[in-house]
Amino acid sequence: MRTDTAAAVEDRTAPRATHEAVVAPPMEYAAPAGAPLTGRAPAPPPDQAAALLRDPRLGGRANGPVRSATLQRLQASYGNHALSRLWQQAQGGGRAAAAVQRTPSTLSVEGEEDEPIVQPMRVSVAQAVQRKPDVPALTTGTETTAKALLGGSAADKQAAINAVVKDMVKSSAISLSKLDGKKVYYDAATVGEGLTNTTFKATGGANPSKVTMGDAAFSSLSWLYSSILHEYQHVKQHQALKSPAGWSEDKAEVEAYTKEILKSEATGVYKNKANMEELWKRLHDNYWVNITDKKQKKELKSVVTTAHDIAEKATGKKLTFTP
User: Fold this and answer.
1) Of 29, 65, 62, 61, which is closest to residue 48 (Cα–Cα)?
2) Got the DSSP string for 243-306?
3) Is residue 164 helix, strand or coil?
4) What is the spatial distance between Cα 162 and Cα 145, in angstroms, rounded to a whole number?
C-alpha cells in the first residue's frame, strides 16, 4: 500500500539543551594494613565490590571514566566470570533477565543525548494487491453496479445494460444516435445473446435499429459487454445499407465476431479461454467457411488472420483456420 510517510525534519537552528556534567566523588577503598603498594588502589573484597557497583553515582551520565576505571580494576583482580556475577548481584541479584526489544530501538550519540537516533525494527509491510477488473473498458463503479445485477429480475438486467451502455457511450465505443429509443433493450424472448432488427424506408435508407439482449448474454459482465459490441457492429452495417438487398449475413457475422476478438482484452473476454474458443469457432465454422465470394474473403482475410492469432494466444491451443 502506498502511504505518505512524513519525513522527520530536524531544526538545526533551534537552541540545544545543555547538559551539565555532574561528576561523582572518587570511589575510594582503603587497603588493609600491610597490603603491598602497587601504584594503584587494590580491589575491594567481593561484598564491598558489589556495593560499589550498586552506587547510583556510578551510572551518572558524566561518570563514564570513573565507571570504566572501576570495572577495569575489578576485572583485573577477579576475572571476567567473577565480575559478571558481581555485576548481576549489583543489579539485583540472581540470573540476568534477557533483554526484550520493543520497537523502535533507540541509540544515543554521546554528547547529544537530546537527539536520539531512532532505528526502527525491520518489519514486513504487506503491499496492497490491486484487483484486476473483469472488464477493463468499464469504470470500477460501473463494473461493481452492473455485475451485481446480472442474475436479477428483468428490471435488474435492463439496469445492467443501461450502466454498461452509458460507459460505452462515454468511451465512444458506441453511439445511441442510430438506435431505436436511443437505448439497448433487455428481452427475455430474444434467442441467443442478442438481436439487431432494422427496417428500411420505402424511399431507401434504414430506420433506427432496435437492439435487444437475451438471457444468454448475462453469463458474465464481460460477455454482456462483448455481446453489445457485436450487436452494435450490426447496427453500423445496417445503417450503411440503402436496402436489405445489399445484405450479406456471412460477411456481416465474420466482421462482428472479428470485432469481438480484436477487442477481447478491453472487454475482458480474453481471460476466458472457453469463450475465446467459442468466438473463434462461431466466426470460422459458422460463417467464414461459407463465404465463397473471393473479393469478400480477400477484404476480410487480414483481420480474420489477426483474430485467429489472438484467439490461439488466448486459448493456448491450435485452432482450425482455413484461409
Assistant:
1) 29
2) SGGG--HHHHHHHHHHHHHHTHHHHTGGG-HHHHHHHHHIIIIIIGGG---HHHHHHHHHHHHH
3) helix
4) 11
The answer to whether 164 and 142 have CB atoms below 8 angstroms apart is yes
Sequence-distant (6+) residues with CB within 8 A of 54 are 90
Q: What is the DSSP string of 21-77?
A: --PPPP---PPPTTPPP-SSPPPPPHHHHHHHHH-GGGG-TT-HHHHHHHHHHHHHH
Q: Determine which helix (DSSP H) or strand (DSSP E) holds 185, and give its type and residue range.
A: strand 185-186
8 A C-beta contact, residue 304 and residue 320: no
* C-alpha span between 146 and 143 (Å, rounded): 5
Beta-ladder partners of 167: none
Q: pLDDT per residue over 159-196, tens digit each?
A: 999 999 999 999 999 999 999 999 999 999 999 999 99
Cell output for 44: 575491594
Q: Check residues 50 and 275 and name the one with the higher pLDDT.
A: 275
Phi, then psi, of 12 in degrees rounded to 5: -75, -15
The pLDDT assigned to 126 comes to 42
Beta bridge partners of 118: 106
Angle between helical axes of 249-262 and 273-281 (0-180°, round to 10): 160
- Rounded Cα gap, residues 286 and 297, in angstroms: 15
Tell me the DSSP string of 203-255.
TSSBPPBEEEE-GGGGG-HHHHHHHHHHHHHHHHHHHT-SSGGG--HHHHHHH
